Amino acid sequence: MTKEEFSKIDKFGVCEPNEAFAKYFIGQSFLKPLTDTKKGEFPIFNVTFEPGCRNNWHVHHAMKGGGQVLICTAGNGWYQEWGKEAVSMEAGSIVVIPANVKHWHGAKKDSWFSHITFEPAGEGTSNEWLEPVSDEEYGKLGE
Fold it and tell me: Of 133, 129, 126, whose CA–CA distance to 109 is shortest?
């Protein structure tokens, strides 16, 4: 499936390349703001991954609250917490990631993947980007 074809089935469409965070991804991702943070609106984004694209391991730190929520809008992808098996995601899948949990998410090898993401409010929040998900780790995932 091409980017243009996928954009038609993703309710929010594929936007511009995610250049600001490209160094934390293997493959191309796209970022579409769904709210206007310049007006003080709660930040919500649609993130699209080309087939095989995934972000690095990372942690959303917080002393209280925080974390991250993923809501798959189209395609098929993976979510994995450190030390646990990867979880398959498809349109309608929701993952609630507690603060301070090392994890990654991205597209399956043969599918585009989009999810809405937001970070619940918290105290002492920060994001820490870690090592890439190796080709070996990623290659072991089933379809």
Answer: 133
Nearest to 114 by CA among 97, 135, 90, 141: 90
38 three-class SS: helix
- Quick one: average pLDDT of 5-28? 91
Q: Is residue 134 part of a domain?
A: no
CA of residue 123 relative to chain centroid, distance: 22
Q: Residue 109 is part of which domain span?
A: 3-36+45-123
Does the pLDDT at position 114 exceed 90? yes
Cα(23)–Cα(73) distance, rounded to whole angstroms?
24
Residues 114, 73 contacting (CB under 8 angstroms): yes
Q: pLDDT higher for 8 or 126?
A: 126
Kind and range of the H or E run holding 137? helix 135-139
- pLDDT tens digits, 43-56: 999 999 999 999 99
